[in-house]
Amino acid sequence: MSNPKLNLKEESSAKKTRSPPKKAKVEQSVPRKKKLKTDAEKTAEKAQHLRFGKAELTPDELSRLSKAQKREMYAAYAARSAVHREVDPYEDDNVGTQALSEGEKAAGNVRDISKSRYARKLKKKAKMQGKKGAKTAKSSVQKPTSAQDAGASGTGEGGSNWLSRWRQKQDIRQSYYAAARSGVEQAVEKGKTAVSTAVKGLMNAAKSNAHVLVIVGVFLLLLLLVMSAFSSCSILFSGTTQVSGQTMYSAEDRDIRGAEQDYKKLEKELDKKIKRTPTDHPGYNEYQYHLDPIEHDPWQLTSFLTTLYDDYTRSEVQGKLKETFKKQYKLTTWVEVQTRYMTVWVMTPAGIPVPTQVPYEYRIFHTKLVNRGLEVVIREELNNDQWKRYEIFQDTLGGRPYLFNGGLPPGGSDGSGAPGIDYQVPAEALTDSEFAAIYKEAQKYVGTPYVWGGSTPETGFDCSGYVCWVYNQNGYDVGRTTANGLWQKSQHISEAEAKPGDLVFFEGTYDTVGKSHVGIYLGNGMMVSAGDPIKYANIHSSYWQKYLSGFGRLSK
Questions:
Q1: Residue 509: which of 417, 403, 413, 418 has the closest Cα?
Q2: Measuring CA to CA, which of 94, 250, 355, 463 is 20 to 30 A from 398?
């Protein structure tokens, strides 16, 4: 087989290039198998092209562009690169992702407009140069013109004027960033009005200058970024407000405590039922109990009801209380029968007693109570969103930490929270030495803060502790008791009979059995009592009148 012939090919016409003409090269007539490109070859190939977005131009095509056209192409490329650098830090955020998407569309539109416009010019210019070149073609390679050298020095690889190229890029970049900063400041100040202005400017610029279109497009993109960020912040703030509004119990203290008392009542009835087992199921040899504690957390119950009903009343939640109670507690009973033996004496025919083991049934009544736990039941009842709200109530105690720790509403046992009244006892009332002594002691502690359970000046006072202290210091022996205890120790009188130094009682100021508040009556419809702090009040005010329950007189 003969060796393949070698064909020597010579350039028939010289093409205008920015680099020296290539030497003639030897090609084999028989095609060779393609080889994998090395890294050096790939780099060399990339060096022959410059990419601006989707537009790929060869060095020959770039040489035909004017300086203004090149500047516009560089501006478009710089704008797109800068947009990506601005958006990259936010790629993980919804705002950044959406802004990038919108920016891609805007940059793509600008790029397509520029490409189509200059592609047509390049095509037309190439056609004209092709015709001219056909007439003046020579077999030898022509020397590049001064204009071509200038183009090569301006944009080509390996050009001698690298400093001017670097300065040109820096000028473009600086002008872009200066414009971008100006656009952001204007967007923050003018808000939505700037959007309309930017859009109009964008359309007008499109008619005359493509690079202006690029800059305005960048303005618009940055404006969208800023507005989206403000929008996200506003959503965040509104969400925070909503969450904070859900940290407080909505129902009245009276209804919250009432619902808690009703649930405790169901538990007490269950406990009584268990204790009545021998009476309700008589006739068994033994009773065995397998019982979990009967208890629940009142905070869990209140947070649960508030999550479901918000501002509920005591009567509205009765059905839910019973339903929840049945799910929390499960009471079961069963009977176990055992065969046991007892010894009996049996007389033999000979009349001799003999011990004998006789079988019999031994019956055991079992009672088992399972407490699943209130929060287990609550978790089954609530969906994920409700559960999160429930947990917030648990963390904050609904904003009312006084509800179930033996505490009372703000304002002490009166619950009014109203400030005290400046009051001077009439001089004629103080002519009664007994009352004068009582009032002297009582007046010492006006302004003292309320302390639940307090009964001495050192610990502070609650309403009954204050009254007991004052009277015990004046020869009375009432000990330390509650408002209801003082009611039981006193002689009940009418308001017409009441005089300074008697006691005035109230019922229902908070959820407790019997009298809930007591004060020292001063005459003329006035009293002094331990609210928060110890203060004077009118017993016929709008608040006190609805709870006024009676008057009492203590005796030594």
A1: 413
A2: 463
Inter-CA distances, 61 with 124, 176, 274, Å: 12, 26, 99
Contacts of 40 (CB under 8 A, 6+ apart): none
Cis link prior to 500 (omega < 30° from 0)? Answer: no
Q: What's the average pLDDT block by block, 10 residues per block, for the chain (556 residues)? A: 45 44 45 52 53 51 64 60 49 44 48 50 59 50 42 41 60 56 53 54 55 59 58 40 58 92 95 95 95 92 94 95 96 95 89 91 96 94 92 81 65 63 86 94 90 84 92 93 91 95 92 86 94 89 92 93
Cβ 294 vs Cβ 371: under 8 Å: yes
CA distances to 45, 298, 399, 505 from 410, rounded to whole Å, are 83, 19, 12, 19
CA separation for the pair 245, 243 (Å, rounded): 5
Q: CA quadruple 397, 403, 406, 408: dihedral positive or negative?
A: positive
Q: Is the dihedral of CA 174, 180, 184, 186 positive or negative?
A: positive
Q: What distance lies between CA 519 and its chain's CA centroid?
A: 46
CA distance 179 to 187: 12
The helix/strand/coil state of 250 is coil
pTM of the entire predicted model? 0.36
